[in-house]
């Protein structure tokens, strides 16, 4: 069975998850004998396996179930000219074998296939297929120095084989990934690769466009540019808002678009995401800072700050 490891940088995306600071997601899958900690990040096209589709004379399935499957398969098919192609990392196999030895993995190293892949963010993945270990680095690392690639490989291998991660070995990758230049490249790349959701800002009960204009006049002197606005297609459990500068889009949780939710609650969440537009994620020491002291100070200028936070806490239960 194939398992996949994913390590992804946040790519400047901000999420209002009960107002906890944004953290880079690091999802690690393990070899077959170890339980993975999370599912792969990318959803694959679904295939309808419901009963009721009977084969015809040519062996094809027919019926409503098969038609739905065909529709989903057609929608999930990649369009011509948009196929993402991986290409080999020069010396990648030898690099991973060196890191396998340096972090103290037991046994002989597996056969490595190491590739650059055009992910939509700074992402590292690894998966085991039979006796081969397939490693993929984001193509943003094509111009990275060798010690950065070594750190990326060590990061994946240390987690897969449950080895202590040597800080000195991983530090070049962490510094490179968190640098201002790299963060800017990520944002520029995401603007071309991340598809903007085609959502309507006019909800059933709240109009995000009108609300944005009102907040912009009250708190930003009408100087904040308007990103794309929309309501989420699904109700999120704990996340109430999100700003992604790649597609330049603010999304709000559709669970708040209800008459029983006070208007000041929705306004506060939108105001929070508007502050992310004003105060982008930046590097602070060895970490990425999404909620700077300036951000927190301006956030508390919202008149219903404490009431809104308590209401969102109740809504998340």
Task: Please give a structural write-up.
With 317 residues, this protein is of the alpha+beta class. The protein has three domains: 3-43 and 84-193, no CATH class; 49-80, no CATH class; 208-315, Zincin-like. Helix content is 35%, strand content 19%. It contains nine helices and 14 strands. It has helices at residues 64-76, 92-102, 146-160, 167-178, 180-193, 208-219, 263-278, 293-299, 305-315, and strands at residues 3-8, 14-17, 26-27, 54-55, 61-62, 87-88, 111-117, 123-129, 132-138, 228-231, 239-244, 249-252, 282-284, 287-289. The strands form four sheets. It has a six-stranded mixed β-sheet with strand order 3-1-8-9-7-6, covered by helices on one side. It has a four-stranded mixed β-sheet with strand order 2-11-12-10, covered by helices on one side. Helix 2 packs across helix 3 (146-160). The relative contact order is 0.13. The model is unreliable at 18-81 (pLDDT under 50).
What is the topology?
Blueprint: E1 3-8, E2 14-17, E3 26-27, E4 54-55, E5 61-62, H1 64-76, E6 87-88, H2 92-102, E7 111-117, E8 123-129, E9 132-138, H3 146-160, H4 167-178, H5 180-193, H6 208-219, E10 228-231, E11 239-244, E12 249-252, H7 263-278, E13 282-284, E14 287-289, H8 293-299, H9 305-315
Parallel strand pairs: 7-9, 10-12
Antiparallel strand pairs: 1-3, 1-8, 2-11, 4-5, 6-7, 8-9, 11-12, 13-14
Helix pairs in contact: 2-3, 3-4, 6-7, 7-9
